């Protein structure tokens, strides 16, 4: 089910994927090896959890170089410092932003044509009463794959796709939707 897959993605990111990433960082030491992570749909939860580390002992040796989230099936408020209609409550992955656990850019893809994230994700999240709510122009239960990463405490920029011969000029520490 929706809830089982979402919980499994977080657990696997916190444990197996995070452990693998930490071990690879230790094995490569200071040789200049950089880790670029990519997730799709619930895989965005996996890579975010792997980088974020659920506990102090689960911290990475060094920040990931970049994080690419393709059509993320997680709340658009997952990375913000203060969920607007739940004051005082940060998004689950806010520490990833606040503690600069990604040295380079975080990039998301989004599309209003993504039926699963546009229609099914809000139904599942809403039915579960998950508290990643929305203010203003965003829906109450919106997904990253439709709206990008949103909310306060994030250096973010919404951009259109560019032709393949143009450079985006991405900067570290910034989120690009």
Report helical residue fraction: 25-40%
* Biggest sheet details: 5 strands, parallel
Number of helices: 5
Shape annotation: globular
What would you report as the Rg, rounded to the nearest angstrom?
16 Å
Strand order of the largest sheet: 1-2-3-5-4
Instruction: Write down how many β-strands occur, each being a DSSP E stretch of 2 or more residues.
Output: 5
Mean pLDDT: 86
Terminal CA distance reads: 28 Å
How much β-strand is present in the residues? 5-15%
Structural class: alpha/beta
Give the uncertain stretches in residue-range form.
Answer: 127-136
Order of helices and strands: HEHEHEHHEE
**Could you state the oligomeric state of the chains shown?**
single chain
Fold and architecture overview:
- The protein is α/β, with parallel strands linked by helices.
- Helix 1 packs across helix 2.
- It contains five helices and five strands.
- It is globular and about 45 Å long.
- It has a five-stranded parallel sheet.
């Amino acid at each position: 089910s929706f809830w089982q897959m979402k919980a499994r993605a977080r657990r696997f990111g916190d444990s197996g994927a995070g452990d693998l990433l930490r071990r690879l960082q230790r094995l490569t030491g200071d040789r200049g090896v950089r880790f670029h992570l990519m997730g799709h749909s619930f895989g965005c939860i996996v890579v975010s959890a792997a980088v974020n580390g659920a506990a102090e002992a689960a911290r990475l040796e060094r920040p990931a170089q970049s994080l690419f989230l393709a059509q993320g099936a997680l709340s658009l408020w997952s990375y913000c410092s203060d969920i607007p209609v739940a004051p005082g409550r940060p998004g689950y992955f806010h520490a990833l932003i606040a503690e600069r656990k990604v040295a380079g850019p975080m990039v998301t893809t989004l599309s209003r044509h993504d039926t699963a994230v546009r229609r099914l994700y809000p139904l599942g999240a809403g039915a579960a009463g998950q508290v990643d709510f929305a203010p203003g122009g965003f829906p109450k239960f919106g997904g990253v794959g439709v709206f990008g990463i949103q909310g306060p405490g994030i250096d973010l920029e919404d951009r259109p796709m560019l032709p393949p011969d143009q450079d985006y000029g991405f900067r570290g520490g910034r989120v690009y939707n």
